[in-house]
Amino acid sequence: MGEGQIRQWEIGHLKLRFEVVWSMAISSLRVRLFRSFLTCLTITVATAFMMYLLTMPRAAEASEQQSWYLMLTLALIVAAAGVLNAMLMSVSQRYREIGTIKCLGALDTMVLYSVLLEAAMLGLIGAIAGAIAGGIISVLLGLASHGGNVFQELELGGLGYKVMFVFFVGMILTTLGASIPAWVAAKMPPVEAMRGEK
Amino acid sequence: MTTAESDSAPRQSEHVQWFANLDQQVDCTVMTKGVCKDYVMGEITIHALDDVSVSIGSGEYISIMGPSGSGKTTLFNCIGGLTKPTAGSVFIDEIDVAQLDANELAWLRCRKIGYIFQSYNIIKVMTAVENVLLPMLFAGVPRDDAQDRAVEILERVGLGDRILHTPKELSGGQQQRVAIARAFANTPAIILADEPTANLDVNTGEQIIHLMKEMNREMGVTVICSTHDHKMLDVSDRIVWMEDGQIKQIRRREDVDIKVDRLAEKE
Ligand SMILES: Nc1ncnc2c1ncn2[C@@H]1O[C@H](COP(=O)(O)OP(=O)(O)O)[C@@H](O)[C@H]1O
Ligand SMILES: [Mg+2]
């Protein structure tokens, strides 16, 4: 070999593969099925409450309106906090695993997106279930208090929009709640991550 | 390589002795130059690595010995780009690891370096074959090809009948074989094995070391392996002795008389 060394390779770049992100997220959901179910339930309850608030027979007085907004806000906060907590737990149980896959060449973005996707899937299922459940609860409670003419009393105007609204809010909250844990996981230095719990 | 030796001009006289022990390495996979790593803990600073310079040739099998706390793991972390040295540089095939961005570092870890850990670090929730698949998926290998290769390597390390087992269904030695298969999956240039046998009984440990040696010969990969155990030294080309974050000795295997309790120089 002449002057200097001829390297057989050049440094390359890794591409983020959606397929891999997807399978990591699915595998994490499957492994922690019971916790995933509970997280999903949190989202369902919050979304259902939101849906109920939007469709229930509403009084026109200003004071009632205020408490209505308050309840809506509370429902959103509870949902976001529940997701934040659940995803933080899910991530902190996986420190070692995350450190290991980073040693194997996982990109930060891969870790980030797989945690976000995991939460988004929970959000999707929870939000759909919640929107349906909330609607049903509205109808049932309405039937109980108003009897047969429930459908006139209920705020069913723009029902499609309401379902969509509730659904998107549920999804966005879930993803927001998961963004902090996802960021923590993605930025964790592999060495420290592996030093963590055995 | 014409400049490596003169570039790393030894600062201390004892360095001269180490380099005298080196053959002229034509292709040098790993080179550290004056690598220091300090950990500041409140008032005190721990010099985990103190001016470590070593050149490791392509295809060499290097054993690193040294008591606990001597800086072996820290050195591995610096070589693997997991820890930034406080001073000095690490070169992998003449690429300065400190110059790489996050994605390039991930690429390096994925394609050029295979890690083997003391505690196996097999992903608990995945089967053996899924564990071996991972680095290949990260590297962009299509899943079907990766699957075939994963099975092939698992057969090579003697786990052909265990590919669908999860870690809790595998013994320590078997888990370490999965880790070896995983480390070799992307045909790396360097294997960094940090006390791979420390959690295993002596016989299993020796099997693991011999497996690594075979892979080292077959694939021409450079193996850097730290160990406490003198029995594990026989397979190495050179032995590095570390103490207090410094390299005390580097010896070729044939110049060393391996006794069970000490490392003696041949008369
Ligand atoms: N993250 C850290 N923070 C503080 N000190 C550390 C850290 N990692 C290692 N050390 C210290 O550096 C020294 C070398 O440690 P290490 O490289 O793990 O040695 P070995 O692997 O040879 O047992 C030890 O004194 C250890 O306490
Ligand atoms: Mg160590």
Structure description:
The complex is a heterodimer of chains A (198) and B (267). By secondary structure, chain A is mainly alpha-helical. Chain A has one domain (17-195). Helices cover 78% and strands 0% of the residues of chain A. The radius of gyration of chain A is 23 Å and the shape is elongated. By secondary structure, chain B is an alpha/beta fold. Helix content of chain B is 33%, strand content 28%. Chain B has helices at 4-7, 13-20, 72-79, 102-111, 128-139, 143-156, 172-184, 202-219, and strands at 28-41, 44-57, 61-65, 87-92, 95-96, 113-116, 190-194, 222-227, 238-243, 246-252, 256-258, 263-265. In chain B, the strands form three sheets. A six-stranded mixed beta sheet of chain B has the order 6-7-8-3-9-10, with helices on both faces. Chain B has a four-stranded antiparallel beta sheet with strand order 2-1-4-5. In chain B, strand 7, helix 8 (202-219) and strand 8 (222-227) form a beta-alpha-beta unit. In chain B, helix 6 packs across helix 7. Residues 1-26 of chain B have low confidence and may be disordered. Classes of the chains: A mainly alpha (198), B alpha/beta (267). Chains A and B meet through helix 1, helix 4 and helix 8 of A and helix 4 and helix 5 of B. Bound molecules: adenosine-5'-diphosphate and magnesium ion. Adenosine-5'-diphosphate binds next to strand 1, strand 2 and helix 3 of chain B.
